[in-house]
Amino acid sequence: MATAGKVIKCRAAVAWEPNQPVVIEEIEVAPPQAGEVRIKIVATSVCHSDLYHLLESMNKDGFPTVLGHEGAGIVESVGPGVTEFQPGDKVIPHFLCQCKECRFCKSPRTNQCERAWTRVRQEIMAGVESRFTCKGKRVHQFMGTSTFSEYTVINQIAATKIHPDAPLDKVCLLGCGICTGYGAAVNTAKVEAGSTCAVFGLGAVGLAAVMGCKAAGAQRIIAVDINPEKFEKAKVFGATDVVNPKDHSEPIHEVIAGMTNGGVDFSLECVGNVEVMRSALESSMEAWGVSVIVGWTDMYDIAIRPRHLICGRTWKGTVFGGFKAKDGVAAMTNAYLEKKVKLDEFITHNMALDQINDAIELMKNSKCIRAVVEVSPP
In this structure, are strands 220-224 and 196-200 parallel, antiparallel, or unpaired? Predict the structure, then answer.
């Protein structure tokens, strides 16, 4: 392409400081360096992790930044040494790497990648490297991705080439939330056929967890949320029961224990709230229950009593649903094309990049499941 090897000027939504609206700016995107690809982002969606950084953690060292980590696009150019991608490929970038060479990538015990731990500074949720500048200032790339930009530069170990028939405005959801929730059920919890499950939080991640529980053959899936407007959508994805904790005077774990003769086999916390994490654990069967922390937060400690685990419960966490990133994104894309997983049903709003602050407000106020933003024409 004519732009290969050159700086590209394009539009991006820049978060200059925490807890303030993002601003559509013209930024400069440098050419990809060795091992990198430059991607024209076609579509992105807003994930709660974007809001967590902007509105909750508000670490000033993580600004200015271009948010967005749930997107899809087309390779514009590649840097030296890149053989896996070529211009024109459809790709999904992802915050989790898979180099396929480190001890973590080679182990079936984890989906982590050692290079991911050096590529992204977790305390500021930004890549160590950045190819963005704006008004003479270096701008962070959120989680090493930054899909709220018409162009971005990604390390080749953090992107997946996908089927050329995949619709980018749908499969962009696979860059984070849907893989996270679905995989939490099938990979991390390892939900069993005929089991009982409870999913706490019915945003996109929670609904994907419901979908994963159904795919695994769970007999009963209890969907828990304080917003009853989400209950019908939960049933679309496979929930058999819906519970609003506000409708009960007793704690939610007691409600679920009463519904299930002592607790569910598997519970999944998809909110990112430490109190809900404890409730989810206590909602699982004391003798053998498995509870998975799926929602992201790093602001507070969790307090439990040892007896909650001593009798046989297992408490674990998951990142990206336990999927090894490249393998999982490719497999989930194919599963969508084969109509084995749902994506369209998560999308409640379609918006333009100029409306990105409206999309953020919708997510902040729980008025959407996923708002898909068209960043560039395909």
Answer: parallel
